[in-house]
Amino acid sequence: MSFEEFEDPRAVLKRYDARADKRFSQNFLIRESVVRRIADAFEPGQSVLEIGPGVGTLSAALLRRGCRVTALEADPRMREILAAEFGDALTVIAGDAAKLDVAALVKPPTALAGNLPYAITGQIVRRLVDEQDKLERCVIMVQREVAERLVADPDDKKSAKKMGIASILVQNVFDTELLFEVPPSSFVPAPKVTSAIVSLRPRTPRVPNTESLSTIVRAAYAQRRKTLRNTLKTLADTDALDHGFQASGIDPKRRAETLSIEEFGALDAALTLNKQ
C-alpha cells in the first residue's frame, strides 16, 4: 500500500484474497473524502492509537498526515495484511478493543481513532470513559443513533430525549461533538445504518468519575419510565435511599432523564457518604 495516495481497500482485499469477516463486524471504508476528513482531525506528529484498522486505509492517511500510529487489530488475517503492506512503518498489536488498556499499548497520553465494531461499541465507549486521563482526543465512528446519544444536549428539549447512560457517563469526562455523518454507501460491505464521526475531548470531570456513579446511572436508566425511588431500590435499603434523596435535594419521584450530570453526582455523593 502506498502512503502517498489513497488506495481503495477493495483492491487490497483482492490482493490477498481476503474479505470482510462478520465475526469482527468488519465494514471497510471506501470513500476517500471521509478517510481524509478523519485524518485531518489529528495533528501532525501526534501519537494515535487506532482501533480496528482493517487493511490500513485510515492508518495510511494518518501516516501521510505525519502521525505516529499504533494499530490494535483483533483479526489475525488483517494483522498479516497490515504487516505485509506497512512493514515497520506501522506498529500492529493483537488485541481486543473491548478490553482497552491504553498504557499497556502505547505511552500515554495518546489520541485515539477508529471505526468501532458496532457489536461492541458500548464496551469500547465504557473503556474510553475509564481511560479518559490517558487520552488527548478521540475521533470515532459509531452508528448515528449512538452518536446522537453521545452528543445529546440536556438543555435542548428535543435532543434531551436521546439522553441515556452513555450520554451521562461520556459527557461527564469528555466534551463531545458530532463532526459529520457517513452514509452506508461509504462502506464495503454496506451496513444497514448510517454512521457518524464523533469527537471526544477529555475535560476535567464535572463530577467524580466513580464506579458507584456508573452503577447509579445504569440502574436509573434501566427502567427509564419508572421513578428514581423504584429504579434505585436494588442499590440500597429504603432508609439509605431516603437519606440520599434528602441530602442531594433530589425528588425521588423524578425519572432518570430529568437529572443532570451534576445531580447524578450529588446523588452518588450522598449515597456513597451514607455507606461510609
Major β-sheet strand ordering: 4-3-2-5-6-9-7
Q: Looking at the chains present, what oligomeric state does this protein adopt?
A: single chain
Give the overall silhouette. elongated
Strand content: 15-25%
> What's the β-strand tally?
9
Number of helices: 13
How does CATH name the architecture of the largest domain? 3-Layer(aba) Sandwich
Radius of gyration equals 21 Å
Q: Structural class given helices, strands, pairing?
A: alpha/beta
Mean pLDDT metric: 94
CATH fold name of the largest domain, please? Answer: Rossmann fold
For the sheet with most strands, the description reads: 7 strands, mixed
Offer a quick outline of the entry.
By secondary structure, the chain is an alpha/beta fold.
Describe the structure.
The chain has 276 residues and is an alpha/beta fold. The protein folds into 2 domains: 9-202, Rossmann fold; 211-275, rRNA adenine dimethylase, C-terminal domain (Helicase, Ruva Protein, domain 3, Orthogonal Bundle). Helix content is 40%, strand content 18%. It contains 13 helices and 9 strands. Helix 3 (57-64) links the parallel strand 2 (47-51) and strand 3 (68-73). The longest helix has 15 residues, at 261-275. The model has no long low-confidence stretch (mean pLDDT 94).
Question: What is the secondary structure topology, with strand pairs?
Answer:
Elements: H1 9-15, E1 28-29, H2 32-39, E2 47-51, H3 57-64, E3 68-73, H4 76-86, E4 91-94, H5 102-105, E5 110-115, H6 121-130, E6 135-143, H7 144-150, H8 157-160, H9 165-173, E7 174-182, E8 187-188, E9 195-202, H10 211-222, H11 228-231, H12 238-248, H13 261-275
